[in-house]
């Protein structure tokens, strides 16, 4: 692709609004069409965001002016829609997860390579200035060599606020597959591939109640573990502990700690594009009567905060510059493999080796300006 890239969006649900707003603000891309199973919904989103064309997914895929398709369909349709776009000769950015099983997701990547097009996969929070500032600080040695990590996401569950939460407790979701991609994409981007996992999970309630919206009071089944704890082993020798829960009375989101030979650092919530970055140094000698209070040293965040759609922009620029894009399909596949391996470990009670790997995830250049015209 050369010049401004024509983009088509497939899926006009709630998340499409933030994508359309952000993509419409980038000079390097032009959103030309919105498609949906319900064309009238696509029409409403297109008109609300100044997009000139709308229709079905097939209409978007057939549009010769569209070079990249943004796939915002439900997870069950991700591989089918992405593969159809690849067959049509278009690059694809897909919402997470890249797919629901290894075989179909791997087939998508193979089809893309054969067609000479690229696949990118959410989350693109790893391109945000919060995460990238922390990544640069760690690479510069602010905590020495990373040794181990700890992450946590705890909530009472989305049934407290979501008007139709059943799908978040169904096969292919739960906290592991719904929230896990944010945390594990961040960890792999920082530390490299995961080689093995051991996980335990629980499902304290087999039914839950909808608390918000017109269906409040209705019950629905819980199909998957609603609390999962994962122990990861990284190829570089580090290890990590990760808690993902929809059962916790304590609301605690975005806990990401990296502990190194010369300090420990906290990172922003991996579901956000910005946040606090701070580190502590070791205490040194500790004698009787000495305080164990440690001074937190804040690292100023560098970069422009935007939001979802940043990964699409990076893909467009990477294609033009003939360089790897950050949130690649290969990263999305490796994260899916980690999550499915954790599911298998929960079911079997055994350690599971992760069969896939991924190349080092490139950083975002300091000074990356989403609002510059570069292609």
Q: Can you walk me through this structure?
A:
It is globular and about 75 Å long. 47% of the residues are buried. It has 9 helices and 17 strands. The protein folds into 2 domains: 117 residues, Rossmann fold, CATH 3.40.50.720; 173 residues, Dihydrodipicolinate Reductase, domain 2, CATH 3.30.360.10. With 375 residues, the protein is of the alpha/beta class.
Question: What is the topological layout?
Answer:
Blueprint: E1 5-10, H1 16-23, E2 29-35, H2 39-48, E3 53-55, H3 57-62, E4 68-71, H4 78-87, E5 91-94, H5 102-115, E6 119-121, H6 129-139, E7 146-154, H7 174-191, E8 194-202, E9 207-209, E10 219-221, E11 227-234, E12 239-245, E13 252-260, E14 263-266, E15 278-280, E16 297-298, H8 310-321, H9 329-348, E17 352-353
Parallel strand pairs: 1-2, 1-4, 2-3, 4-5, 5-6, 7-12
Antiparallel strand pairs: 7-13, 8-11, 8-17, 9-10, 11-12, 13-14, 14-15, 15-16
Quick gist of this model?
InterPro entries: Gfo/Idh/MocA-like_OxRdtase_N, Gfo/Idh/MocA_oxidrdct_glycsds, GFO_IDH_MocA-like_dom, NAD(P)-bd_dom_sf. With 375 residues, this protein is an alpha/beta fold.
Going by CATH, the homologous superfamily of the largest domain would be Dihydrodipicolinate Reductase, domain 2
Structural class: alpha/beta
**CATH fold node name of the largest domain:** Dihydrodipicolinate Reductase, domain 2
In angstroms, what is the radius of gyration? 21 Å
Into which percentage range does the β-strand content fall? 15-25%
Distance between the termini: 9 Å
Query: Count of DSSP E strands?
Result: 17
What's the CATH class of the largest domain, please?
Alpha Beta
Helix content bin: 25-40%
Poorly predicted segments: none
Annotated CATH architecture of the largest domain: 2-Layer Sandwich
Number of helices in the DSSP assignment: 9
Q: Give the SSE order as H and E letters.
A: EHEHEHEHEHEHEHEEEEEEEEEHHE
> Can you give the mean pLDDT?
95
Estimate the global geometry from the Cα principal axes.
Answer: globular
Total domain units: 2
């Amino acid at each position: 692709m050369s010049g401004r890239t024509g983009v088509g969006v497939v899926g006009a649900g709630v998340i499409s609004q933030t994508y359309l707003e952000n993509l419409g603000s980038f000079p390097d891309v032009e959103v030309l069409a919105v498609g949906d199973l319900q064309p009238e919904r696509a029409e409403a989103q297109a008109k609300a965001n100044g997009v000139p064309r709308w229709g079905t997914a097939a209409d978007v895929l057939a549009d010769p002016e569209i070079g990249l398709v943004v796939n915002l369909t439900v997870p069950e349709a991700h591989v089918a829609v992405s593969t159809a776009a690849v067959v049509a000769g278009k690059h694809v950015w897909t919402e997470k997860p890249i797919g629901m099983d290894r075989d179909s997701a791997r087939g998508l990547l193979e089809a893309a390579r054969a067609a000479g097009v690229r696949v990118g996969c959410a989350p693109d929070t790893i391109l945000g200035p919060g995460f990238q500032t922390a990544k640069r600080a760690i690479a510069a040695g602010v905590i020495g060599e990373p040794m181990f990590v700890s992450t946590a996401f705890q909530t009472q569950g989305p049934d407290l606020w979501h008007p139709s939460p059943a799908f978040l407790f169904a096969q292919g979701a739960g906290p592991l597959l719904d929230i896990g991609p944010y945390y594990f994409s961040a960890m792999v981007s920082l530390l490299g591939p995961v080689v093995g996992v051991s996980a335990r999970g629980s499902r304290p309630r087999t039914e839950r109640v909808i608390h918000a919206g017109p269906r409040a009071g209705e019950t629905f089944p819980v199909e998957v573990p609603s609390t999962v704890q994962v122990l990861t082993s990284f190829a570089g020798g580090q290890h990590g502990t990760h808690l993902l829960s929809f059962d916790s009375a304590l609301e605690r989101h975005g806990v990401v700690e990296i502990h190194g030979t010369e300090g420990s650092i906290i990172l922003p919530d991996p579901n956000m594009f910005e946040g606090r970055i701070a580190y502590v140094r070791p205490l040194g000698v500790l004698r009787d009567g000495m305080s164990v209070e440690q001074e937190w040293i804040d690292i100023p965040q560098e970069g422009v905060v935007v939001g979802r759609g940043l990964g699409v922009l990076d893909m467009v620029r990477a294609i033009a510059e003939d360089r790897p894009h950050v949130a690649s399909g290969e990263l999305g596949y490796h994260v899916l493999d980690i999550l499915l391996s954790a599911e298998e470990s929960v079911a079997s009670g055994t350690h599971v080796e992760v069969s896939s790997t991924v190349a080092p995830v490139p950083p975002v250049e300091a000074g990356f300006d989403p609002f510059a015209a570069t292609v």
